Amino acid sequence: MRKPRVAILHYHLRGGGVTRIIEHTVEALKNKDVELCIITGEEPGDSFDVPEEIVKVVKGLSYGNENPERDYEEMVSEVKDAAKDQLGALPDVWHVHNHSLGKNAAFTRLVLRLAEQEHRMLFHIHDFAEDNRAKNYRYLSGESSVSQEHSLAQRLYPLAPNIHYAVLNGRDQDILADTGIKKDQLHLLSNPVSLDLEQEEIAGNEDNQGGSGKLYLYPCRVIPRKNIGEFLLWSALAGENEHFAVTLAPKNPKYHDSYNQWKKFAEKEKLPVTFEAGQKWDMSFPELLNRADAFITTSIAEGFGLIYLESWLAGKPLTGRILPDIVADFRERGIQFPGMYEQVKIPVAWISKAKITARFRKAIQKNLKRYGIEFEEEDLSYWINTLLDEDKVDFGALDEEIQRTVIARLRKEPALKEQIQPVSLSSKWPDEAIIEKNKAITKKEFSLSRYAERLLEVYDALQNGETEKVKYARSSSLLKRFQSPQNFSLLRT
Prior knowledge:
Strand content: 5-15%
Oligomer: single chain
Shape: globular
Keywords: Transferase
GO molecular function, one term: transferase activity
Largest sheet: 7 strands, parallel
Number of helices: 17
Protein name: Glycosyltransferase involved in cell wall bisynthesis
CATH topology of the largest domain: Rossmann fold
Radius of gyration: 24 Å
Number of strands: 17
């Protein structure tokens, strides 16, 4: 059998999660029997680490607000020509990343047209417009689809034997399965994971690196879903020789004000926490990881959940908040997460039930309206009653202003911490045997070679499958699954 010809499509090749996966894909398939090219909307940045000769730029594919209006039918022809120039013929498989994200309607129409023309498509979904990206979803809802009979938002997930989907976790797999996508056309394609951890000697004054005590490291960029307030809550309740550090400031300017408020608050409350630790302590990322005694996460939403694997590769225990639907796949492979919690419950009375109910009600109404979801008063009551469980509320569901109020109160009245569930970060850290076992599983199951095996299996299934005229999945069920009280937080509104 001849080598399959594969064209990867994405809006851009700037630094970021999807770009890293494209780099991993090229590396994983480097010595495999695959002819590969990448078609994108702009020239790759200097940091993009793949051979330039396999990249072809088609103007109009990058994010919509950065492009002049273009006819998508004309772009379909250009993309086909670009692929033929690179591969010598049309691709056997079009491997498309994040087509349904709502960043460029022309890009979405283009790939849907390819699907309608019965090309073999792999739609690789990392992020969903339906998952708290209401602006993106409204944009798609306001755009007509290829057929002009429905909005793009109603036609995002075409169905045919020649169309397969890849997702990052079992939760997304289940959600898409509910829309009508067949099991054998829906693939769990976990990201490959590696960690460049050089055993560098830590230089400098230890007192300027969190002291000689226990260091909890949160390796993340501070954006709202990372729930930095909860991270500072634990720092406020820290023992005498405990210090907390977070690695990166937000890139997006819209998060700068929030970030600066947290920094000022931490300074005012004299919290044992360091922001942008690598820069402050003049340490490389590997040095930071080596310096840490444990990793911590307080994130309320993840796509893949890299933090739940990286800690083991670094040989460190992981503590903090766990997202059961994200780690379910990891647990199935044998990875253990002892001592982590799912929520931090605090008394509603600390805030005022009327105040928090009003904030929840306003935010829920706004969010449902933005998605065009009809609701009744009983629906709002269900959401609020779910969020306010027996006069307790999850700290991660609160907005940043209320979170700061709670932390400040605990600083003044530390005895109140006994009313929190859990009252502290677990002392039941995974022992060395669990860390080593988790590390071995991570290296085996989430290696680059394992990723290549899974991807080639998908390409093979597509290349040898039938083609048919497309139908469309029940996308409304997907929206309902994401827009639920279980996924709601004021931090994401």
